[in-house]
Structure formats: structure tokens, C-alpha cells
Amino acid sequence: MEENIAGNNGGNKNESQRQIAGAIIIAGLMIAGAILVKGNNNTSVTPTNNNTNAVKTSVAPAPVTQNDRTIGNPNAKVTFIIYEDFQCPFCGAVSGLAPNSEAIKYLQQKDATWAPFMPYINDLVKNGSVKFVYRDWAFLGPESIQSAEAARCAGDQGKFWEYHDYLYAHQNGENKGGFSNPNLKSFAKTLGLNTATFNQCLDASKYAQAISDSKAEGQKAGVTGTPKGFILVNGKVLDTIDGAEPLSAVKQKLDAALK
Question: Are 36 and 87 in contact (CB under 8 A)?
């Protein structure tokens, strides 16, 4: 967006406005991070690569079933299950789908070497080494639930992953209308879905209970924030991903699992 600056007073005013806007964005990310860090009284996770205080759960998540959204070799040695919220800025960051996002800038300010880990996991999925399972843990408000339902409605037409990627590439704040029902329906049209079928699914809240059940299952496994990943070998949890860990840390964990 271009700005017209007339004279020094206008320039100072606009510069002040930009500074305030930037401060609000960073403050929002810090608050989101605090939500992730706080968790509950017994468990904490972190949005950064500082895992010193993270408590890792030893409880396995619910077994993978045909109702899960999975991709990759069904017989892969390693299964990677991740619980996420489509509004979570750190979930968007680890996806790498919006490389210039404020969340990525925030993480890289804390660690200049930070890089998203999902592109690496996608490579492992493509070569058959890892089975990837995406699960909803919608906790940031109504648009989290709506977007999770919308992605599943897209899945009814075989386009869950396309819709999943579109959501993470188009995050626009939390509960500010970015993932309102009209916008979610517009996304479906953009992706070439049958909009009548999609709209009916979304309006009927077809997957509301499934979204709620997914969150409850995650809580039983110790999920208190997003992103939260589980690395399983032969059905047993070998390691976890706690928050927006850097690629270097996640790669080390997955490479160990693949040995």
C-alpha cells in the first residue's frame, strides 16, 4: 500500500503510525507466544527454539485411523502427528508458506538461524520416509473452529491439503474476519471446489463435533498449545516437537527416528 506524505509534519505523523502499528503486531505475537508458553499448571511449551523449560509428554496421541487427514507412505517407519490451529501465527511460521510473515520475523529476531521445519518434513513425506498426520487443536477462537471445519469440508472434495496450505498462506490476524465464513467460502471458490456442496457443509457445521473431539484427544496426550508434534516409531512416541522449534532441532530429531 502506498502512502502520500505531504511535508515534515505528515511524514512524522505517518512514521509514528507505522511505529505504533509495528509495536501492536509484535505485541500480538508476544501475547500469542505467551499463550503457548503458559499452557496449564503442569505443562509448558514454547514458540521458539528455547526448550529448556518445556515438559515433554510421554503419553501417545490417539492411534491414527481412516478418519485422520494423512499423507505419505502408510507403511512408513516414522509417523509424524502434529496438532495445529489455522489461526496460530507460529503454526503458519513453521509451515513456511508465508515467508515474510510477522511471526517468522519475530522468530528470526530471537534466533537468526531459525527456519521453518515443514518443508523438510514434506520432503520426507514425498520420499516415503514419513507418514504425516494433521490434527486440529482449535483454541484461539471462533475463526479457528470455522477454518478447521472449512478445511474438512474441502477434504470431502479431495482438497484438504490444498485448503490447508491456502489457510496458512493467508493468515490475517486472529478473529478479525480473515477466516470469516464468507471468506472461507471465497477460498473454496478460488481453489475450484464445488461451492454449493462446500457451503452446505460449512453452514451445517458438519465437522463441529469432530473438531471438538480432536482437541479433547490432544489434551489427553498433553497438548497445551500449538504447534505440537509427536514423532512415532512403531506406534511409540520417540520424541516431540514443542512449539515453533527451528528446522535444525526438528531435523535432528527426525533423522534420529529414521536411523
Answer: no
Query: Rounded to whole angstroms, how far apart are CA atoms 94 and 246?
Result: 8
Residue 171 C-alpha from the chain's centroid: 10
Kind plus residue range of the DSSP H or E element containing 178: none
Of residues 14 and 127, the one with the higher pLDDT is 127
Dist. CA 32–CA 174, nearest whole Å: 10
Tell me how far apart the alpha carbons of residues 111 and 51 are, in angstroms, rounded to a whole number: 13
When pLDDT is cut at 50, 70 and 90, the band that residue 20 belongs to is very low
Q: Which residues contact 195 (CB under 8 A, 6 or more apart)?
A: 185, 188, 189
* pTM exceeding the 0.85 threshold for the entire prediction: no
CATH of domain 7-258: 3.40.30.10
Angle formed by the axes of helices 160-169 and 142-155, nearest 10°:
150
Beta-strand runs (E) in 65-138: 69-71, 78-84, 130-136
Strand-pairing partners, residue 130, are 78
% of the chain with per-residue pLDDT over 70: 78
Question: For residues 17 and 231, which has the higher predicted lDDT (pLDDT)?
Answer: 231
- Tell me the mean pLDDT in the region 203-211: 98
Q: Is the peptide bond before 227 cis (omega within 30 degrees of 0)?
A: yes
Cα separation, 54 vs 60, whole angstroms: 17
Do residues 40 and 225 touch, judged by C-beta distance below 8 A?
no
Residue-level pLDDT at 59: 82
